[in-house]
């Protein structure tokens, strides 16, 4: 009788342990959304929505590769909690500005705070020469990239 009683206690404790382990709390949609947003990085053009573990991505990106990377990142944010990803992201390519007169005027405005820099435009390519402080080179590059040229060539710039 003691053996039956001991065996019953062991089986009951085993069943209880398995049920406690398998009853982990489910992650909330809000927490999952935060995980996905962290995983995809800061992309102001992409919105994340989560409903019962189904992640929906919407917004715009400029390339198919960027769209794929965002979907993969969303899936890997939490492999157990993400049931599926609906990728409603639209690809909206950047229009390249090749109008030399328009681009030249915009380049002049973008470089006005950089007196030691000269920029020329030829067939949509901005070529920059001169010197720029290390702390300001990124600002210059971003300003010129925002004009959507074919290319920004900074190979003639000396960084101090």
Automatic annotation (TrEMBL):
- What residues does the BON domain cover? 24-93
PROSITE patterns referenced in this protein's UniProt entry, alphabetically: BON, PROKAR_LIPOPROTEIN
Q: Which Pfam families match?
A: BON
Spell out the InterPro entries in the cross-references. BON_dom
Its name, as the record gives it, is Transporter
Instruction: Identify the species of origin.
Output: Sphingobacterium pedocola
